[in-house]
């Protein structure tokens, strides 16, 4: 039986069109927009049972796969290696190489965060506790953009029930890593322990320590793209565990960064099998606070000046309600429940918040409250004590 691949003339013409268009535009995103505008659809297919599928706009994932499919080059792939096939090539070598070069350049630029207005600092570095790479993504809620890092299996299949898949707020994990890295660069002892074996000369060690201290001091003022580049150059891998975050540092590459001569990290060098890396561990865990997940770091039990708008709105609403009731005008709790369309229980819970200790109220307004104190938790605390000292103990201010 002859099982040779046979070129379909019309489909081959479409494939050539896609390759040439990508070579012209240099971006899969722009390529998809152009193909959609031209009305180019995926191939119609029919199963033995008669079910028809396809005939839809080509997804970016399908385009990436197509642009890297060596069958179009006249080759076949077996166990990761390509061999000359017996079928006719659809794409010539020059066009193939041109497309692969652009794909590679875009992939490297994405990994380094080049050109991004708000680059994800840890893209390509994060792995969950099952070893799966975590991908940056975002969601828009009520016009506000929220960034996350998500385990790759959950990106490929959002409905997957894969155990261990994680979805971590990007700002939280980026803050954990940057703060630990700053502390490391500021510590002469930690730094010397890391690079001492690679830099035996005492004078050179002193220069590196000084350079690290200067970098740590300058860090808060660096552009995100610069921070992203420094991390890529010195950190092969970051592992997220249930109770900690492990940051792997390459001492040799770090020394290059401090000499202002960073090595270009190999995509394959993720630190998974190397015993020459230093691990910086941060005790941290994910915890749900209200409707969101937060990464809580051991020893950092309070916010640092970042107000929780939900909590603040709750406090303001509670005091506004009390002022209206005290002002009279025929308005009582029953009337307020009718006006707001809420139950009496909600209104009475809200009124209880006006009896919080003044320092607790002030801490909430200034964002200095415990991290696990949320609007939902405060409203659930229907029987918190009226004594101020007992309130502080019950709500985590003691």
Task: Please provide a written account of the structure.
The chain is an alpha+beta fold. The protein has 3 domains: 9-112, Hect, E3 ligase catalytic domain fold; 170-297, no CATH class; 309-394, no CATH class. It contains 16 helices and 12 strands. A 5-stranded mixed sheet has the order 5-9-10-11-12. It has a 3-stranded antiparallel sheet with strand order 6-7-8. α1 (9-25) crosses α2 (28-38) and α6 (170-186) runs antiparallel to α8. It starts with 8 loop residues before the first helix and ends with a helix. The model has no long low-confidence stretch (mean pLDDT 79).
Topology:
Elements: H1 9-25, H2 28-38, E1 45-46, E2 52-53, H3 60-67, E3 75-78, E4 81-84, H4 93-112, E5 126-127, E6 134-141, E7 144-151, H5 152-156, E8 167-169, H6 170-186, H7 188-195, H8 202-218, H9 224-234, E9 237-240, E10 244-249, H10 251-258, E11 278-289, E12 292-297, H11 309-327, H12 333-340, H13 344-352, H14 358-366, H15 375-380, H16 388-394
Parallel strand pairs: 5-9
Antiparallel strand pairs: 1-2, 3-4, 6-7, 7-8, 9-10, 10-11, 11-12
Helix pairs in contact: 1-2, 1-4, 6-8, 7-8, 12-13
């Amino acid at each position: 039986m002859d099982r040779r691949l046979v070129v379909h003339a019309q489909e081959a013409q479409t494939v050539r069109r896609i390759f040439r268009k990508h070579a012209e535009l240099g971006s899969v995103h722009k390529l998809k927009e152009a193909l959609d505008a031209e009305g180019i659809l995926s191939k119609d297919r029919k199963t033995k049972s008669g079910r028809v599928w396809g005939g839809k706009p080509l997804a970016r994932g399908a385009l990436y796969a197509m642009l890297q499919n060596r069958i179009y080059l006249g080759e076949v792939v077996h166990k990761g290696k390509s061999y000359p096939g017996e079928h006719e090539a659809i794409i010539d070598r020059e066009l193939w190489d041109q497309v692969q070069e652009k794909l590679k350049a875009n992939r490297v630029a994405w990994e380094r965060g080049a050109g991004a207005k708000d680059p994800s600092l840890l893209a390509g570095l994060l792995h969950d506790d099952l070893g799966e790479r975590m991908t940056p993504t975002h969601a828009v809620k009520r016009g506000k953009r929220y960034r996350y890092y998500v385990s790759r299996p959950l990106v490929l299949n959002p409905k997957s029930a894969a155990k261990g898949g994680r979805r971590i707020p990007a700002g939280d994990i980026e803050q954990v890593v940057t703060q630990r890295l700053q502390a490391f660069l500021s510590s002469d002892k930690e730094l010397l322990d890391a690079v001492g074996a690679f830099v035996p000369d005492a004078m050179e060690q002193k220069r590196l320590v000084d350079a690290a201290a200067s970098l740590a001091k300058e860090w808060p003022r660096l552009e995100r793209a610069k921070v992203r580049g420094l991390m890529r150059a010195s950190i092969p891998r970051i592992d997220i565990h249930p109770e900690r975050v492990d940051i792997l540092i390459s001492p040799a590459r770090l020394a290059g960064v401090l000499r202002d001569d960073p090595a270009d990290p190999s995509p394959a060098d993720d630190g998974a099998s190397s015993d020459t890396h230093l691990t910086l561990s941060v005790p941290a865990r994910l915890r749900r606070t209200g409707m969101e997940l937060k990464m809580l770091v051991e020893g950092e039990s309070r916010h640092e000046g970042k107000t929780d708008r939900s909590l603040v709105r709750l406090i303001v609403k509670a005091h506004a309600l009390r002022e209206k009731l005290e002002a009279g005008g025929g308005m009582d709790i029953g009337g307020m429940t009718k006006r707001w369309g809420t139950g009496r229980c909600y209104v009475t819970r809200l009124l209880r918040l006006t009896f919080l200790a003044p320092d607790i109220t002030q801490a909430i307004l200034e964002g200095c409250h415990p991290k696990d104190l949320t609007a939902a938790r405060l409203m659930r605390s229907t029987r918190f004590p009226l004594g101020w000292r007992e309130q502080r103990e019950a709500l985590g201010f003691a």
